[in-house]
Amino acid sequence: MAILPEVKSHYGKLKFYIDNQWVESASSEVQETTNPATGRPIAEYPTATRDEARAAVESAQRGFKAWNEIALRERAKTLFDMRQAFEEDYDVLCRVLTQDHGRTMGESRGSVRRVIENIESACAACYAMPKLNEHIDQLATGIDEYLIYEPLGIFLIVTPGNIPMHAWSSFVPYALAAGCSVVVSPSRQDPVAAEYITRTIEKLNLPPGLINLVHGGRQINDFILRQPEVQGVGFIGSTAAGQALFKTCGELGKSSSLNGNGKNCVVIMPDADLDIAAQYLLRACFGMTGQRCLGSDNVLVHEKVFDQMKEKFVAAAKAMKIGYGLDESMELGPHASRNGMEKTLAWIDKCLSEGGKLALDGRETVPAECKDGYFVGATIFEDVTTEMEVTTEESFGPLACLMRFNDLDKVIEWHNKANYDQGHSACIMTADNKAARKFIREMETGNIGVNVAVPQPYSFFPLASKKQSFLGNAKSRYASMRLFLDEKTVTSRWV
């Protein structure tokens, strides 16, 4: 298979996008970002000053006012044009995402396709939104009443390091469909991806200030959120960061959609097709190097098929090709950051200290040519028990903990108790309708999968996470329309 060229070997010092202009930052705080497959720097990015963040907010306020003077049909056409722009830049965006984040090209193609699907969904929302408005004629004698949905205004959008493009599309197109403007503050792990998304939408001749980009961090994000013109925040990232934003939103009375961590599981029943399950587990546990919100590292296997499942899973994991994702034959890329790799290595050590036994040690399977990148190979533990702390802590690496069980009721009880504060995803592999239905009804988890590897909802469904895995008043994707809109009633008397 082909080894694709990098879009650039180095992208220079990144700029902010404010008022439809690329702005050189005056900040003295400048950091490097690296290609995680090689460890080599590929760009420098500044951290915005408060004055620069304030300029982005003021720009967004002007963009919001201008956008709402444009006819609905023209705003909808702009979203359709956005979809076309992403199709045209599809290959470049995929290669940038692989170079900046580390995922394989297959994973990048899937992620950018999810971006386009979200834009399509926002196109539908743009036309569906006016139909939400209600009108009752002659509610009382001579009195008519209306319910109107109106855009709230400016929103801060904070994207994570693991899904920088997909997360952008989970909020920004919907904000535009609702009539809002945005200030985007991307993760420091992959700032080049954020710039290239912005370069794609730059082609659309949007009203100045409708979409703004600054490189911030927690302090700048907090500053932006506290600006009086900013109405709320859309966020995907860690639960700790989400809780901090949630506290600020509560203090200030602002809207939020905050998506955090989870500890997910896959349950293999004795009647599951084990060959198919082994392939599904590769995606569930090792897809995107384990840095996936709905991926899993707890794998509970019925004792009747445990040994067979382990053998098939280990063999499939051993066969995965590890390396730089621009080589299209690669199946497992690096972590997005050195810090992520180090956390995975520490997690492996902790599992070993708690009594876990390695069935496959990914520290020993990384090719020599990958030594400078942030790689850990697929790692599988056995002899893991539900008493171990690692079964309740998200690893966010290419790891799987195999656990035996003989009673689905006990699995459900344990999972719900162990994840009392988390509720991202849970999957079951089975041919038994009764077992599947029980799993769906009793698992206290927002995204359930039956005979699928990763229960990723389509764009016009919400990411339905529960408990502390989600905080706020509206879920992401199509459901985020509720984040960006407010209600107004009009009562009129003419007689």
From TrEMBL:
Name the UniProt key words of this record, in alphabetical order.
Answer: NAD, Oxidoreductase
EC code? 1.2.1.27
| Family matches, as InterPro entries | Ald_DH/histidinol_DH, Ald_DH_C, Ald_DH_CS_CYS, Ald_DH_N, Aldehyde_DH_dom, MeMal-semiAld_DH
Q: Does the keyword NAD apply?
A: yes
User: Pfam families recorded for this chain?
Assistant: Aldedh
Domain Aldehyde dehydrogenase positions? 22-490
Recorded GO molecular functions are: methylmalonate-semialdehyde dehydrogenase (acylating, NAD) activity
Give the GO biological process terms.
Answer: L-valine catabolic process; thymine catabolic process
In its UniProt entry, what is this protein called? methylmalonate-semialdehyde dehydrogenase (CoA acylating)
